[in-house]
Amino acid sequence: MSSETSGKETVKYEVDPDGDLLLVVSDNQTTSHILVSSKVLCLVSPAFRAMLTGPFKESLDLKNKQGNEPAKQELPDDEPNGMLLLCSLLHFSQHDHLPQPIPSNVLLSFATVADKYGCTPSLRYVAQPLLASVDISTLASRYEMLQASYLLDIPSAFERFSKAVVLGEGRKVWLIEEMSCLPTRVPGI
Q1: Do 44 and 27 meet the contact criterion of CB atoms below 8 Å apart?
Q2: Confidence category of residue 4, pLDDT binned at 50, 70, 90
C-alpha cells in the first residue's frame, strides 16, 4: 500500500503482520514503513538490542506503547530497500516486493545495514545465493558486489568479485575456475 505526502511516496510493508515496531526509513523519493518484530531484531542484532532494550527513547517508546499500535523507530541514515531486504531475511519472510534478481545496489545497501547493525553472522549464509545471482556485467556492479561481499564477510564471494573487477569479465569470471589450462599459482610468488 502506498500514499503520497509532501512529494515523497510512502510505502508500507508488513514483514511481520503481528509486529510491534514500525521502522521508518527514507531516501530522496520514498518513505518506507516496515512493520517488524522487535524481538527478532533484538535476537540477531546487538545494535537493535541496545537501542530497543536499553535506557534510550526508542526503548521507552516500545515499552510504553498503547494498544495495538506499533512503536515507531526512525532510521534516517539507512536506505529503504536495503533495510527491507534485511528485515525480510531476518524474519524468514518473502522479498518478492523487490525486483528479481535483486540489483547490486540494493545488495550493497543490504550489506551496509547488515554490517551497521551487527547482523552479518546471522545473514552470511542466506546472503550467498543472493550474491551469486546478481548481474555483474557493469564495472559499477562488480565494485558494489566486491564491497558487499567484504561487508558480509564472505571470502569466496570476495575472491570471485575481486577477479571480476581485475579481469573485467562480468559473468564469465565464474567459469575461470573451471579452466584447467590456467595455472593456479604463479611460480616465484
Answers
A1: no
A2: low
